Protein: N-acetylmuramic acid 6-phosphate etherase
Organism: Parabacteroides acidifaciens
Amino acid sequence: MSFIKITEQDSHYNDLEQKSVRELLEDINTEDRKVALAVRKTIPKIEELVLQIVPRMKQGGRIFYLGAGTSGRLGVLDASEIPPTFGMPPSVIIGLIAGGDTALRNPVENAEDDEERGWQELQEHQINALDTVIGIAASGTTPYVIGALRRAREHGILTASISSNPDSPMAAQADVAIEMIVGPEFVTGSSRMKSGTGQKMILNMISTSVMIQLGRIKGNRMVNMQLTNQKLIDRGTRMVAEELGLPYSQSQHLLLMYGSVKDAVEAYRHKRLK
């Protein structure tokens, strides 16, 4: 099949500058409603990927996200939320963006066009066959990502891609190609919109389901979350109190002593059994 760049097709809406604010917001929302449906169609592929990631991570494997621009920022964002949410070290899911940390706030000229740099950065992290590399690019044509996926695959590393165009060059380098076809953007070519929203949803689905499979959630609670502010300490205290049937003050003492809901509950129950 020929490669169709849907992400660059003309918007379904014209004369945007002549619309009222209400019209703009309603039209953007109309387009955004298409995203969840497009993501839903990719669930079988996301499932295929997660089922391959989990056994690798149980043996010490990691996930690497690679992207440029909005796609790279979303990968870094998802990776950065894993330690506070699930109590995992920051080395378990790593986000790499073309141009490095500078590119998180400012565009770095030509960074995404370097086909070798992504693989070099993966090597700096001593990437190995237990790891997984997930390329993120709405267009599916970013050289920084394509080159990294190609080299990773050559070394027997599991590769996946998240794109908004069917049959892209990036997907051709992925063992699992997640193709979320959201259609033309509200502002022609502005893939920070529907494509970015869908990428965030898919990254949430991958990382959250992997962490649950790795035992980082109990029931529906973040029992391993980091206690980095008063809100999280309060939330954790209430979890301990509910789980053990203890007063708030005693629950908070246990939580702060052991550092996580899971450890506090297990320690208390272990002492009771002695």
